[in-house]
C-alpha cells in the first residue's frame, strides 16, 4: 500500500467517530446496541463449502435494486450465506425487513447493518471473507475498491453508468497509487456500454436490465387488503382515475388550479402521511378548488354517486402500488422538489405518466419510458396543460402496448444471477 493511500486511510478513520455517533443516534432497534462501523470485530466464520455474498446498498432506492437479486441468489442453493449492509440510516427498516424475510426462508444472514466507514473496509472484508460484493448504481469508495482488489474479491455494480462517483473513485485510486478491483459492470441498457468500456477498459460489461421491474412486479402481486376495500367503496366514482403518487407540497403547488379542473377522480398519496404533511397538502388541495376526502374516514356508506371532481387524500400507508393498478393515469411526485420518485410502479400497468424535471435524468427507465411515449417530463405549466388535456381520453389507446413493453422488461434478476454465478467460486 502506498504512503499516500495509507495517509488517506488514516484520515478517513479520524473522521469515523462522529459518523458512528450520528448513525447510532438515528438508529432504531435494528442497530441501537451495535457499534456498527466496527462490524469487523464480529466473528463470522464461513464454512469452506459455503458461498457468501455481500450485498451493499447506499440507501432505500438502491436496496430495492438489490432486493430481488439477494433473494434469488440466496434461495437458489442451500449453502449460501448473505451479508447485508447499508450506508444511509433511511434504509434501516427496509434492510431489517429483507433480513427477516431471508431468515424466515432458511437463509443464513451473517451480518445485517451499517457498512464499515471508509478506512475500515479491508479489515471487514478479511473478517467476512465474501466471495463477491454487489452494490448498485453510484455507491463507490476508494478504500473499498482497493480492499477488494487486495483481497481478490470481485465487485459487481448493478445499474452502472459513468456517473460522477465512479469516475471520481477511479481517479482517486490512480492518484493514490492503487489498482482497481475486478469490476463487473451491469448497466440497465446497451446505451451505457460504450462509455463504461471506455472509462473502465479492464472491466467486464454486461447490460442486464433493471431488477426493480422484477421487484415491483412481485410486490404488485402481493396486493393489499385495505386498498382493495377502499377501491370497492368508491367503485362508482367517475372516471378517469388519476393517482398522485409520492406527492409533495411542491407538486400540488405546481399543478394549482389545473388539478381542481381535472375531471373524474383524483387520489392524492403524499410522500409522508404524518399529520402535519397531510394537513399542508389538504390546505393546498382546497386552494386548488377541491374538497379532499381523507381515506381514513372513508366508509362504504359515503355517497360518491353522481359526483365529479372527487379528490381522495390517502392519509394511510402501504398501498400505492395497488392504486396504480386501478388508475387511468399517474403523476409521480418529487420532480419539483428533491427529485422524482419511482416511475416503474405505475409504468408496469401501462398508464400514461407525468413527472417533474428534478432528478429525471438519473434513471434509465425514465429515458426508456419517454422514448415509448408513456412518460412526459412536465417542465412548465404549458406542458402540464397539454398533458392534462389528453387525460380525458381513457383508457389510453397505447395501454396494452405499454403493458406488453413493461412485461418485456422483466427478467433482469435472472440475468444478474447468471453472471454472478459465472464469476462465482
Report what the structure shows.
By secondary structure, this protein is of the alpha/beta class. The chain has two domains: 13-210 and 411-422, 3-Deoxy-D-manno-octulosonic-acid transferase, N-terminal domain (Rossmann fold); 224-408, Glycogen Phosphorylase B (Rossmann fold, 3-Layer(aba) Sandwich). The chain is built from 19 helices and 14 strands. The chain has a seven-stranded parallel sheet, sandwiched between helices. Strand 6 (183-186), helix 8 and strand 7 (204-205) form a beta-alpha-beta unit. Helix 6 crosses helix 7. The model is unreliable at 21-38 (pLDDT under 50).
Structural class: alpha/beta
CATH class bucket of the largest domain:
Alpha Beta
- Quaternary organisation of the protein chains: single chain
The CATH architecture of the largest domain can be given as 3-Layer(aba) Sandwich
Weakly predicted, low-confidence segments: 21-38
> Could you give a short account of the major beta sheet?
7 strands, parallel
Our count of helices gives 19
Say how many strands there are. Answer: 14
Gross geometry = elongated
Overall pLDDT level? 87
The portion of residues assigned to helices is 40-55%
